[in-house]
Design goal:
Tetracycline Repressor, domain 2, mainly alpha, 2 domains, 215 residues, globular, 75% helix, Arc Repressor Mutant, subunit A
Protein backbone atom coordinates (compact mmCIF):
# COMPACT_ATOMS: atom_id res chain seq x y z
CA UNK A 1 0.00 0.00 0.00
CA UNK A 2 2.79 2.42 0.92
CA UNK A 3 4.65 1.60 -2.29
CA UNK A 4 1.52 2.20 -4.36
CA UNK A 5 0.89 5.51 -2.62
CA UNK A 6 4.51 6.56 -3.17
CA UNK A 7 4.37 5.49 -6.80
CA UNK A 8 1.19 7.48 -7.34
CA UNK A 9 2.74 10.48 -5.62
CA UNK A 10 5.86 10.23 -7.78
CA UNK A 11 3.79 9.90 -10.94
CA UNK A 12 1.76 12.95 -9.99
CA UNK A 13 4.92 14.98 -9.34
CA UNK A 14 6.41 13.82 -12.64
CA UNK A 15 3.33 14.83 -14.60
CA UNK A 16 3.05 18.13 -12.76
CA UNK A 17 6.66 18.86 -13.69
CA UNK A 18 5.88 18.04 -17.32
CA UNK A 19 3.05 20.56 -17.27
CA UNK A 20 5.27 23.22 -15.69
CA UNK A 21 8.13 22.69 -18.15
CA UNK A 22 5.75 22.81 -21.10
CA UNK A 23 4.24 26.10 -19.90
CA UNK A 24 7.69 27.60 -19.33
CA UNK A 25 8.80 26.56 -22.82
CA UNK A 26 5.75 28.18 -24.37
CA UNK A 27 6.15 31.36 -22.31
CA UNK A 28 9.62 31.77 -23.82
CA UNK A 29 8.10 31.84 -27.31
CA UNK A 30 4.61 33.28 -26.89
CA UNK A 31 2.82 35.96 -24.95
CA UNK A 32 0.87 34.83 -21.90
CA UNK A 33 -2.43 35.57 -23.64
CA UNK A 34 -1.55 33.28 -26.55
CA UNK A 35 -0.84 30.23 -24.39
CA UNK A 36 -3.66 27.71 -24.00
CA UNK A 37 -4.00 24.49 -22.05
CA UNK A 38 -4.24 22.71 -25.41
CA UNK A 39 -0.80 24.10 -26.30
CA UNK A 40 0.60 23.02 -22.95
CA UNK A 41 -0.77 19.49 -23.37
CA UNK A 42 0.99 19.05 -26.72
CA UNK A 43 4.40 19.10 -25.03
CA UNK A 44 3.46 16.52 -22.41
CA UNK A 45 3.09 12.75 -22.49
CA UNK A 46 -0.62 12.87 -21.74
CA UNK A 47 -3.79 14.40 -23.14
CA UNK A 48 -5.45 17.73 -22.50
CA UNK A 49 -8.28 15.91 -20.73
CA UNK A 50 -5.77 14.40 -18.29
CA UNK A 51 -4.27 17.81 -17.54
CA UNK A 52 -7.58 18.79 -15.97
CA UNK A 53 -6.97 16.14 -13.32
CA UNK A 54 -4.19 18.40 -12.06
CA UNK A 55 -5.38 21.93 -12.79
CA UNK A 56 -8.55 23.81 -13.67
CA UNK A 57 -7.00 26.82 -15.43
CA UNK A 58 -3.65 27.73 -16.95
CA UNK A 59 -3.34 30.40 -14.26
CA UNK A 60 -2.84 27.67 -11.66
CA UNK A 61 0.18 26.49 -13.64
CA UNK A 62 1.72 29.94 -13.69
CA UNK A 63 1.11 30.41 -9.97
CA UNK A 64 3.25 27.32 -9.44
CA UNK A 65 5.93 28.74 -11.74
CA UNK A 66 5.98 31.90 -9.63
CA UNK A 67 6.39 29.79 -6.48
CA UNK A 68 9.33 27.91 -7.96
CA UNK A 69 10.98 30.95 -9.52
CA UNK A 70 10.66 33.07 -6.38
CA UNK A 71 12.29 30.30 -4.35
CA UNK A 72 15.23 30.17 -6.78
CA UNK A 73 15.56 33.97 -6.76
CA UNK A 74 15.69 34.15 -2.97
CA UNK A 75 18.08 31.21 -2.82
CA UNK A 76 20.48 32.94 -5.22
CA UNK A 77 20.40 36.11 -3.14
CA UNK A 78 21.02 34.14 0.05
CA UNK A 79 24.03 32.34 -1.35
CA UNK A 80 25.85 35.53 -2.32
CA UNK A 81 24.91 38.03 0.38
CA UNK A 82 27.63 38.66 2.96
CA UNK A 83 27.85 40.63 6.19
CA UNK A 84 28.05 44.43 6.11
CA UNK A 85 28.01 44.98 2.37
CA UNK A 86 28.76 48.22 0.58
CA UNK A 87 25.68 49.73 -1.06
CA UNK A 88 27.06 49.37 -4.58
CA UNK A 89 28.09 45.74 -4.05
CA UNK A 90 24.71 44.85 -2.60
CA UNK A 91 22.77 46.55 -5.38
CA UNK A 92 24.92 44.95 -8.06
CA UNK A 93 24.12 41.56 -6.55
CA UNK A 94 20.44 42.39 -6.15
CA UNK A 95 19.88 43.79 -9.63
CA UNK A 96 21.89 41.14 -11.47
CA UNK A 97 20.12 38.37 -9.58
CA UNK A 98 16.73 39.93 -10.22
CA UNK A 99 17.40 40.21 -13.94
CA UNK A 100 18.66 36.63 -14.01
CA UNK A 101 15.15 35.70 -12.88
CA UNK A 102 13.45 37.98 -15.39
CA UNK A 103 10.60 35.54 -15.97
CA UNK A 104 9.54 36.02 -12.36
CA UNK A 105 9.27 39.78 -12.86
CA UNK A 106 7.38 39.26 -16.12
CA UNK A 107 4.85 37.12 -14.26
CA UNK A 108 4.66 39.64 -11.42
CA UNK A 109 3.41 42.21 -13.94
CA UNK A 110 0.53 39.86 -14.80
CA UNK A 111 -0.17 38.54 -11.32
CA UNK A 112 -2.76 40.93 -9.80
CA UNK A 113 -4.70 41.82 -12.94
CA UNK A 114 -4.65 38.58 -14.93
CA UNK A 115 -3.36 35.46 -13.18
CA UNK A 116 -5.01 35.90 -9.78
CA UNK A 117 -8.35 36.73 -11.42
CA UNK A 118 -8.87 33.24 -12.83
CA UNK A 119 -8.18 30.90 -9.92
CA UNK A 120 -10.34 29.77 -7.04
CA UNK A 121 -10.15 31.39 -3.63
CA UNK A 122 -8.75 28.15 -2.20
CA UNK A 123 -5.98 27.91 -4.83
CA UNK A 124 -5.12 31.59 -4.45
CA UNK A 125 -4.86 31.29 -0.67
CA UNK A 126 -2.52 28.30 -1.01
CA UNK A 127 -0.41 30.24 -3.50
CA UNK A 128 -0.10 33.27 -1.24
CA UNK A 129 0.84 31.09 1.73
CA UNK A 130 3.65 29.41 -0.24
CA UNK A 131 4.80 32.63 -1.89
CA UNK A 132 5.14 34.62 1.32
CA UNK A 133 6.85 31.64 2.94
CA UNK A 134 9.43 31.84 0.14
CA UNK A 135 9.98 35.52 0.91
CA UNK A 136 10.68 35.05 4.62
CA UNK A 137 14.50 34.88 4.18
CA UNK A 138 14.46 38.26 2.46
CA UNK A 139 14.44 40.03 5.82
CA UNK A 140 17.59 38.18 6.90
CA UNK A 141 19.30 38.79 3.56
CA UNK A 142 18.87 42.55 3.84
CA UNK A 143 19.63 42.58 7.57
CA UNK A 144 22.85 40.65 6.93
CA UNK A 145 23.98 43.22 4.39
CA UNK A 146 22.85 46.23 6.45
CA UNK A 147 22.66 45.32 10.16
CA UNK A 148 21.62 48.83 11.20
CA UNK A 149 18.59 48.96 8.93
CA UNK A 150 15.34 49.05 10.89
CA UNK A 151 12.59 46.49 10.41
CA UNK A 152 10.19 49.05 8.91
CA UNK A 153 12.87 50.18 6.48
CA UNK A 154 13.59 46.60 5.40
CA UNK A 155 9.91 46.13 4.63
CA UNK A 156 9.92 49.44 2.77
CA UNK A 157 12.89 48.37 0.65
CA UNK A 158 11.29 45.02 -0.20
CA UNK A 159 8.14 46.80 -1.34
CA UNK A 160 10.10 49.41 -3.31
CA UNK A 161 12.22 46.89 -5.19
CA UNK A 162 9.04 45.10 -6.22
CA UNK A 163 7.37 48.28 -7.44
CA UNK A 164 10.48 49.38 -9.33
CA UNK A 165 11.08 45.97 -10.92
CA UNK A 166 7.50 45.54 -12.05
CA UNK A 167 7.32 49.12 -13.30
CA UNK A 168 10.63 49.14 -15.17
CA UNK A 169 10.66 45.74 -16.89
CA UNK A 170 7.68 46.22 -19.25
CA UNK A 171 9.23 49.36 -20.78
CA UNK A 172 12.80 48.04 -20.69
CA UNK A 173 11.99 44.74 -22.40
CA UNK A 174 9.74 45.47 -25.41
CA UNK A 175 8.98 42.70 -27.86
CA UNK A 176 9.85 42.88 -31.57
CA UNK A 177 6.56 44.52 -32.56
CA UNK A 178 6.89 47.18 -29.86
CA UNK A 179 10.46 47.92 -30.91
CA UNK A 180 9.41 48.19 -34.56
CA UNK A 181 6.54 50.50 -33.62
CA UNK A 182 8.96 52.77 -31.77
CA UNK A 183 11.22 52.85 -34.80
CA UNK A 184 8.35 53.67 -37.16
CA UNK A 185 6.96 56.33 -34.82
CA UNK A 186 10.07 58.43 -35.19
CA UNK A 187 9.87 59.20 -31.48
CA UNK A 188 13.02 60.45 -29.77
CA UNK A 189 12.95 57.65 -27.23
CA UNK A 190 15.62 55.27 -26.01
CA UNK A 191 14.52 51.98 -24.46
CA UNK A 192 15.82 52.02 -20.88
CA UNK A 193 18.19 49.38 -19.56
CA UNK A 194 16.53 47.33 -16.82
CA UNK A 195 19.66 46.77 -14.75
CA UNK A 196 20.77 50.41 -14.79
CA UNK A 197 17.30 51.78 -14.10
CA UNK A 198 16.64 49.39 -11.23
CA UNK A 199 20.10 49.97 -9.78
CA UNK A 200 19.79 53.77 -9.87
CA UNK A 201 16.30 53.86 -8.41
CA UNK A 202 17.14 51.41 -5.64
CA UNK A 203 20.35 53.25 -4.79
CA UNK A 204 18.50 56.51 -4.22
CA UNK A 205 15.88 54.71 -2.15
CA UNK A 206 18.30 52.64 -0.11
CA UNK A 207 20.59 55.58 0.63
CA UNK A 208 17.57 57.47 1.89
CA UNK A 209 16.68 54.62 4.24
CA UNK A 210 20.25 54.24 5.53
CA UNK A 211 20.55 57.98 6.13
CA UNK A 212 17.17 58.21 7.82
CA UNK A 213 17.94 59.14 11.41
CA UNK A 214 15.33 58.68 14.13
CA UNK A 215 13.87 61.88 15.55
Amino acid sequence: MDFKRARNKNNKAKRWNEIIHSAIHLFEKKSYAEITIKDIAKDTSFTRANIYKYISTKEEIFLEIIIRDSGKWINDLQKKTINNMEIDDFLELWCKTTYKHKRLIQLFTLLPFVIEKNVSLEKLAVFKSKFFKNLEPMHYIIKQAFPNLKQDDIISFVQAQYYFSVGILPVADPDDIQRKALELSGADYVVPDFYNELYNHLKIYLMGLLNNKPN
